[in-house]
Design a protein that fits this description.
Shape of chain B: rod-shaped
Largest sheet of chain A: 7 strands, mixed
Strand content of chain A: 25-35%
Oligomer: heterodimer
Strand content of chain B: 15-25%
Low-confidence stretches of chain B: none
Distance between the termini of chain B: 84 Å
Structural class of chain A: alpha+beta
Helix content of chain A: 25-40%
Strand order of the largest sheet of chain B: 1-4-5-9-8-7-6
Radius of gyration of chain A: 42 Å
Structural class of chain B: alpha+beta
Number of strands of chain A: 38
Low-confidence stretches of chain A: none
Mean pLDDT of chain A: 92
Shape of chain A: elongated
Mean pLDDT of chain B: 91
Largest sheet of chain B: 7 strands, mixed
Strand order of the largest sheet of chain A: 26-29-30-34-33-32-31
Order of helices and strands of chain B: HHHHHEEHEHEEHEEEHEHHH
Largest interface: A-B, 97 and 93 residues
Number of helices of chain B: 12
Number of strands of chain B: 9
Radius of gyration of chain B: 43 Å
Chain lengths: 813, 345
């Protein structure tokens, strides 16, 4: 809501020294933030109302005229003017020598000097709206072209800024959805009066004479046939002369951001701004059968609205109709068929209350949003419906010569008694943590113009005016009291009650640990978007029918790129890689702890995963040494480190067949037979498709980590007896997986085997064709005594025969 | 004989003098002090002396031996030192060359901020609650006192999945879920960090996905002043010990009274600058006393229990704390941005 400071000055008694900025601060502290202050014109000076006395053609220029202009200083000024609409007798703004105005083209401010135009002296400039710094979109159509023509009664010599109110400042009120009462100057007046504790003069400023009494019955009938209209008032006005509005009305509307159309429309807009009650005027002669009928639209019924659009209506929408057809969409927009035109002389003025939900849905469905609709959507004050009508009738009598010969007609379906709420001051102070006295509460309620009676010593009964429909429960009154006594009056205290132990859950701890582990491995954590495009899965080669293809989709996405919820993290990390590659950062090591989303009932399953992606080089690095590119074992080492840190043992790696991974350089990660993740090099073709270089990726399912993680620690005593170390060098068929051989060594039944480590693999010269040589270091130890050579040999031999049997391993001599 | 001794002494010492480094040192020792060396030869030659002279000359020779041995030891010591010094000098390197560095991983700034917030509230006895990002409309709106067609729903334009299911627009549904789970038990003290979604075009200040952290306390006698005290304590721990907060009235459908919480401007320290629009304050979060209807719908009698709730944008906290000016940075993951957070990891 925009509120003109000039208008505010008329409807409340602002104290001495008040400024728009100070008022804005007070409103902000009271709960209605004011963040912008706009000037109607950015500031001009030295421009006055002038009359053009005489116009003659410039001898040396076709388009220029030499004008004699009366600026009220006695001697007329000679001014050269190029505007097409300059003529003897018109009143226009005139910038005198030394005046500051705006350049029509650049918008820059400049000052007027005496000049010569094609040899003729000019002592000033006649001005257009642009030159006064006015936005011509807020002026009546045509007023922006050529000189700004002023009304005949404009006083010659008066400063234009004063005459037009150009120095007005508009406060932009940022209303929260509950404060629709301040979508009217009436509400603004109440709010300012309450916040500043000053007298409210709104009702004097916007007074009405009330209904004309003793009039004949109206020649209009009103029928409400829908329960989405609580009350409907209509008044027929005759002898209406449709024409331009006076300048004060044009400028008042401009200050509020509304363009002046004609006096009838402008009055309805002004009263809407004043009372928050939208009004609509119909051309009486187009209301067939002299009947206004409020009804729901027929399914598929059509109406051309005021904006010239043909609208197909639905039965959930409410219309204003006459005997035969719809003539407007209730609360949203009028119909073209009953529009008030320049020739119209008899009008029907409507003031009604339409159901907020129906209005809201209708507007949404039609894609319309008007100032009227905005107010109906939030609910108008039913007690102001009639007053607003009276006020508009008064103004139309004044400004359009309208007369009224018949009574208004009305239909009211329901009326509600004003709401009364109890406020228990003891409870209020307990909830707020304050100590606000009854006297202060009573004074605040008075400032709000809420009637209060004392029910008992600590309980007040408060009547809530209909204009404050946001106040429905006792706590709403606590807020009113608290905000007007000042939120800064609320002290700072600590929570009382029992001590509670703050702690993280096991899942939260594991995620935290993984996050720190990831970063300590040299990886940077990234956060990426949930919403993605299904094409990624296709590019990954995920088969149709694969569960990953089953994605949760948005009903109406904002873009194709963000239309479904991701089922895989890899594409998100690839996007990060692509972004950084495009900025020439080829070394990337990142991880994300993120969710994927999989359809289920009643809600999708949200699965946490840890994924990491590395590309380029990543190692301990020295300026003078060659960089070492990452490879399969870099990513596998990271995974091993992570799993080890999580206390997960018995991990096996078996070949994977994921289509987006290199079949020879990828693995599924198994713990106790279940897959907890996978790792490997991106398939070269996939990498090509995504235009990324050799890249390695791993993904771990956090549910599995959660299940298998063992973060408990039981310290083992240090060994008291020496170990026996034996090396084992064997020849193996070339394709034998060393990891399997090591598993076999561990499981061969050597009960005193403490550890086994690989220390060499070799194939080539001195190793027979089709074989490779592998060497392991085995450590045997007992905790209760020193092993004898024979004992170790026995176990060692068992291992040798075990791998000989299983893999055809031969001992190297 | 005496003269011979003196000559030998002079010769030996002079030879020792001119030796360089280790070279010839061993030979010198053999020549003079060895078993067949010249000093020994002197002793052997003593047979030619009279018995009276023998002891005197004997002691002179012994003196000479001692003197030469000492000289030798000193000389050898010097040679060793010289050799060591030489070695150290040879091994000297340019210590200003860069070291062999470990790759520096980083925490994402939003994760770092969330951890810090969690730690502050863990210290105040809160626990961390989580809930689904794909949420039922009922929890995201209805049970937070935002019935269908409520104008306040305009505040949060929503990604719907079905008519009843949506991407949560706030972390507040976790409040509802927690209260329903606790079944009337108190005290409830939780914070709920998590991702939320709104139909916003991505630009410098908007993101269709962003992160919030909700807080909720429900108990007997929870006061609005407790909310202020709690947030004050939070602000001083999270931002700095000198900062302050203020409350401004506001509106949220799920709290009554509602407040907007301002922090002393982090740029001008309250002096007034362009960032804080010359007010000295910047808005950091919304809060309020839990709306009685929200308590009631979750099974808590609002006449017996009260509570407060607050919700903050993690991106905003991070932007204020680290001076970040574009929200997109958080989700683009440019390494030049991420690597700046090494001191927070």
């Amino acid at each position: 809501m925009k509120a003109s400071y000039r208008w505010i000055q008329e409807i409340v008694e602002l104290p001495e020294g008040m400024t728009p900025e100070r008022l804005g601060e007070a409103l902000t502290n009271g709960g209605i933030p004011v963040e912008a202050f706009e000037k109607l014109s950015p500031g001009i000076s030295g421009v006055v109302v002038a009359r053009v006395l005489d116009v003659i053609q410039h001898p040396n220029a076709d388009k220029l005229r030499i004008c004699s202009v009366d600026t009220g200083d006695g001697e007329p000024l000679q001014i050269v003017c190029g505007a097409a609409n300059v003529a003897a007798g018109v009143k226009v703004p005139c910038a005198k020598i030394g005046a500051a105005v705006f350049d029509r083209h650049s918008g820059e401010k400049f000052s007027i000097k005496k000049s010569k135009l094609r040899g003729v002296e000019s002592h000033g400039m006649l001005c257009s709206a642009d030159e006064l710094g006015l936005d011509s979109k807020l002026l009546p159509k045509g007023a922006g072209e050529g000189l700004l023509l002023l009304p005949e009664d404009a006083p010659v010599g008066e400063e234009i800024a004063r005459y037009m109110g150009l120095d007005d400042i508009t406060l932009e009120l940022e209303l929260t959805p509950n404060r629709s009462d301040c979508l009217s100057m009436r509400g603004v007046a109440h709010e300012i009066a309450a916040v500043l504790n000053i007298p409210n003069r709104f009702y004097q400023a916007a007074s009405t004479t009330g209904t004309d009494v003793g009039l004949s019955a109206s020649d209009l009938k009103v029928e409400i046939q829908s329960d989405a209209c609580q009350v409907y008032f209509a008044q027929v006005l005759e002898d209406v002369k449709v024409g331009p509005s006076p300048i004060w009305l044009q400028m008042r509307l401009a200050a509020e951001g509304i363009r002046s159309i004609n006096n009838v429309v402008d009055v309805t807009n002004l009263v809407m701004l004043e009372w928050g009650q939208p009004l609509h005027a119909f051309d009486y002669d187009q209301v067939q059968g002299g009947l206004i009928r409020v009804r729901m639209a027929g399914e598929g019924e059509e109406l051309v609205t005021l904006d010239g659009q043909s609208r197909k209506l639905a039965s959930t929408m409410q219309v204003i109709a006459d005997q035969n057809r719809a003539i407007g969409i209730a609360g949203v927009m009028g119909g073209e068929n009953s529009e008030v035109r320049d020739a119209t002389t008899k009008i029907v003025l409507e003031s009604a209350s339409f159901d907020p939900r129906v209005t809201r849905r209708t507007g949404k469905a039609l894609g319309l949003s008007s100032e009227a609709q905005k107010r109906f959507e939030k609910g108008v004050d039913p007690t102001a419906v009639q007053t607003a009508l009276h006020r508009a009738v008064d103004l139309l009598k004044q400004l359009a010569g309208a007369t009224v010969s018949t009574s208004p007609v009305s239909q009211q379906l329901s009326s509600t008694d004003p709401l009364s709420l109890s406020i228990d001051l003891g409870r209020m102070n307990r909830v707020l943590g304050t100590d606000i006295a009854k006297k202060e509460v009573l004074s605040i309620l008075k400032r709000l113009e809420f009637e209060a009676v004392e029910k008992s010593d600590q309980v007040l009964l408060v009547t809530i005016p209909a204009r404050r429909s946001d106040i429905t429960i006792e706590e709403d009154l606590y807020e009113e009291v608290a905000r007007l006594s000042g939120y800064d009056q609320i002290p700072m205290t600590f929570l009382q009650g029992g001590v509670t132990q703050g702690h993280l859950t096991r899942g939260q701890k594991i995620r935290r640990k993984l996050r720190h582990l990831g970063s300590s491995l040299g990886l940077s954590e990234v956060w990426t978007y949930t919403l993605t495009h299904p094409k990624w899965l296709e590019e990954m080669g995920v088969a149709e029918g694969d569960p990953l293809r089953d994605q949760v989709a948005l009903l109406s996405p904002m873009s194709d790129e963000r239309q479904v919820l991701r089922t895989a993290l890899l594409p998100s990390l690839i996007e990060v890689l692509q972004h950084n590659l495009s900025r020439k950062h080829t070394d990337l090591a990142i991880f994300e702890i993120g969710k994927t989303y999989h359809p289920s009932n009643p809600l999708p399953i949200e699965k946490w995963s840890f994924s990491l992606l590395i590309s380029g080089t990543l190692s301990m690095r020295h300026a003078l040494e060659p960089k070492k590119p990452v490879d399969f074992f870099t990513v596998k080492g990271m995974v091993q480190t992570i799993l080890e840190r999580m206390g997960i043992e018995g991990v096996r790696y078996v070949r994977s067949d994921k289509p987006w991974l290199h079949p020879g350089r990828s693995a599924r990660i198994l713990v106790k037979g279940s897959e907890i993740g996978y790792l490997g090099e991106l398939h070269p073709e996939t990498a090509d498709r995504w235009e990324v270089p050799e890249t390695y990726y791993a993904e771990l399912d956090l549910r599995a980590i959660f299940e298998f993680a063992n973060l408990e620690l039981q310290v083992e005593p240090l060994p008291r007896f020496p170990a026996s170390e034996r090396d084992l060098a064997v020849l193996l068929p070339i394709g034998t997986p060393i990891g399997d051989v090591m598993d076999t060594i561990r499981e061969a039944g050597a009960s005193d085997l403490e550890s086994v480590a690989l220390f060499d693999i070799y194939q080539g010269a001195q190793v027979p064709e089709g074989k490779k040589s592998a060497a392991f270091s085995l450590i045997y130890r007992r905790s209760d005594r020193t092993l004898t050579d024979e004992e170790v040999s026995k176990q060692h031999d068992r291992i040798v025969s075990s791998i000989a049997e299983q893999y055809g391993a031969e001992l190297r001599k | 004989m005496q003269e011979e001794i003196l000559k030998l002494r002079e010769r030996a010492l002079q030879e020792l003098q001119v030796l360089e480094g280790n070279e010839g040192l061993a030979e010198w020792k053999v020549r003079y002090l060895g078993k067949k060396g010249e000093v020994t030869a002197l002793l052997r030659g003593m047979g030619a002396l009279s018995p009276e002279e023998r002891p005197r000359v004997g002691s002179l020779v012994n003196e000479l031996r001692e003197e030469l041995e000492t000289a030798y030891d000193q000389r050898e010591q010097r040679a060793k030192e010289a050799a060591r010094n030489q070695r150290l000098q040879n091994e000297s390197i340019d210590i200003t060359l860069p070291g062999r560095t470990l790759p520096l991983g980083t925490l994402h700034p939003l994760a770092a901020v969330i951890e810090e917030i969690e730690d502050i509230f863990l210290g105040l006895g809160f626990t961390v609650a989580e809930g689904p990002e794909v949420e039922l409309e009922q929890y995201n709106f209805e049970m937070l006192n935002l019935p269908k067609d409520h104008p306040a729903r305009d505040m949060q334009d929503t990604f719907y999945i079905t008519e009843e299911m949506l991407m949560r627009t706030q972390t507040s549904p976790v409040q509802v879920r927690t209260l329903l789970e606790r079944q009337g038990q108190v005290p409830v003290r939780i914070i709920c960090p998590g991702k939320v979604y709104r139909r916003d075009d991505d630009d410098a200040t908007h993101s269709h996905m962003f992160t919030q952290c909700e807080g909720l306390v429900v108990d007997r006698n929870v006061r609005m002043s407790d909310l202020k005290g709690t947030l004050y304590s939070f602000a001083r721990h999270f931002f700095n010990e000198e900062t302050n907060i203020r409350f401004r009235p506001s509106f949220f459908p799920f709290t009554e009274p509602s407040v907007e919480v301002d922090l002393v401007c982090v740029h001008c320290k309250g002096e007034g600058c362009r960032i804080c629009k010359h007010t000295g304050w910047i808005e950091i979060l919304g809060a309020g006393m839990v709306h009685p209807r929200v308590l009631e719908m979750a099974g808590y009698d609002p006449r017996e229990y009260t509570g407060f709730a607050f919700g903050m944008g993690i991106e905003r906290m991070a932007m204020l704390k680290f001076g970040i000016d574009n929200i997109r940075n958080f989700y683009v993951n440019d390494v030049r941005f991420l690597s700046q957070f090494k001191v927070r990891s």
